[in-house]
Every structure is written in C-alpha cells, then in structure tokens.
Amino acid sequence: MKMFTAELEDQLREVFQDLVDDVTIAYFGDGDCYTCSETESYMEEVEALNDKIHLKKYELKTDVAEAAKYNVTMAPSIVILDSKGEYRGIKFNGIPGGHEINSFIPALLEVSGAGNSLPKDVMDRIEAIDKPVNIKVFITLSCPHCPGAVHTAHKLALLNSNVEAEMIEAQTFDELSNRFNVSAVPKIVFNDDKELLGNQPIQQFLSTIEAM
Question: Which ranges of 21-119 would DSSP assign to H, the alpha helix?
C-alpha cells in the first residue's frame, strides 16, 4: 500500500524542486521489526520523487560498520547524508509518517543546501557549542507540535558538528520512552539528562545546552 496519494506526490515533487545538491537516505532495517517494511516502502516512494534523492538500504545486524558510523542502534532508523555522503547528525528512529513528514521533508531540503538563515546572535550561540551534545526528541505521529521540535533539533545538528539530533517515535521504541518517562510529547532530552517539554524556540534549546 502506497503512503502517498497522487495529489501528495505532485505536491512533494514541486517541493523537491528546491533541492540544491544530492542527498542520500540511509535506511536501517532489522528483519521483520515493527514498521520496518512500511518505513522502507515509504523511503522508496520518496526516492522516486526526485533524481537528487538516493536511497541506500542497510540491515542493522549485518551492516555493523555502517551502523556504527552513524551511531545507529535501533530499527527502523534513517540518517540523511549530504552530497559528499557525510552524516550531518540528523537521524529519525521510527517511521517519520503522520505529522512527522513535516520534519522529514525539511531535513532533506536543508541537508541538500536549501533552508533559511538564522539571526546572527542565534548563529553565534550555535557556533559556540564546543562539546558533544545528543538531542533526543520523543514524538508520536499524531502530534502536530512535534515536527517543530524535531526540526529545531535537526537544525542545530546541521549547523554544528558537535550536535547529533534524533527523532524517536515513542510507541515504536516504548522501552526507551519508559526509560525517559515520556508521558507527553514532544519531550526533548539533552545528553540523556536535561529535559524540555513542548515545541520550544531554538533559544530555549540553546539555553539548555549552555547550562550543561
């Protein structure tokens, strides 16, 4: 069963006209894992919409070196690689369906080189991040506020190589959700320690990082 209607495919083809450079979707499955087949089909449909989008498929248990390269430990997982094949810290754990298409599509565009600039004071704070920062954004596919939080986390990763940002679909990875006491989304966890709740502005993300 296709994820996209013909109408949505046409809309996405138009959106993808803004892609600047090629991007690669690195998909990691794990046999018959929950939503793996659905996620793989989804990525195939996305690849077919523009010649600048490429899909590479890996298996978590057998493609160990590739998984380690991108810090992939769960399946299904997706990382977005730039035109040089480099990982920019942008990862999706679980299918980026439902409302999360609104974080997945911008991720492809921004890794390709499209995207809006940020104010200088914000950029200065992002560039000043000099320590490793992992940002986990727990989401559900029915949450309309979650894509904004995911996009903000991904933006920070794209702009500073010390930051890695990952969407985590809370229901698919319920053990991890339980570990971090996820009872509402989006829940944002920094280095498995500091937390924010809700679709916070980028300044709040930065203040949390700066206080760590």
Answer: 36-47, 64-69, 101-112
Question: Three-state SS for 48?
Answer: coil
In this structure, whether the domain defined by 120-210 belongs to CATH 3.60.10.10 is answered with no
- Each residue of 110-128: pLDDT tens digit? 999 998 889 999 999 999 9
Residue 68 to residue 27: CA distance in whole angstroms: 13
- What pLDDT, in 10s, does the model give residues 29-42? 998 788 999 999 99
pTM of the full structure: 0.96
Give domain 6-85's CATH number out of 3.40.50.720, 3.40.30.10, 3.30.360.10, 1.10.3720.10. Answer: 3.40.30.10
Packing angle of the helix pair 101-112, 6-15 (nearest 10 deg): 30
